[in-house]
User: Fold Winged helix-turn-helix transcriptional regulator from Adhaeribacter terrigena.
Amino acid sequence: MGATKTDHFTLQQNELASLAKALGHPARIAILEVLLKLDSCICGDIVNELPLAQPTVSQHLKELKTAGLIKGNIEGNSICYCIDAENWNKYKELLSAFFGQLALKTNCC
Amino acid sequence: MGATKTDHFTLQQNELASLAKALGHPARIAILEVLLKLDSCICGDIVNELPLAQPTVSQHLKELKTAGLIKGNIEGNSICYCIDAENWNKYKELLSAFFGQLALKTNCC
DNA sequence: CTTTATCATCGTAATATTGCAATGAACAAA
DNA sequence: TTTGTTCATTGCAATATTACGATGATAAAG
Assistant:
């Protein structure tokens, strides 16, 4: 064991969990914050901003890309990463809807 | 290696990542959905709702509790779990603020 | 006191994640 | 062509997560 039983849960549950998992590392939060802050998309400058080696950052970028949170464009020699605005807003709604489910009444505990 | 370099990131980054990590499993999403749906707080009925063994569910509950997303009260023989409304709304704001950072302009990629 | 029910904890196996050195691929500049 | 720059990929070691059987703790029921 050790493998998540993905097929036992609904698509929505897996989708939300998958998004959260991608956000579940401080380095990936930091990467997203860098991309949010900058007007122009930078490339390998992300590596310089983080206390991690280049392969490690590259790996985190890959995960963020797989999750759909960022996009990457080749620009000459270097590569330009930025937030995937469309998915970003979709995920924003998804999380907002999830957290908005709580009824206003005081809980029993 | 294999350990996250928590001390290299800011408190805010770690806090957000920690919350996301707690949400990063379909079983934990499912548990939260059960607790959100029910008026009265149930206890071990959560186990019956999920395709997982009791110790596994108990472990997930512990993680959600540690993250501050749920609370647990002893109620006679059984235990009553429910959403921690105060933290829930705090986290809602936290995520909303994070996702709200995206500027409206079209991205360069 | 004994039994049953409910839930947590322990121990362990399987798998996933994190991190980096080494290497590779692609392109620009000399 | 050779060199340097940029980033991805590979391979590996350390650690974390997931899952569950077995067991323990606690309280209600008999």
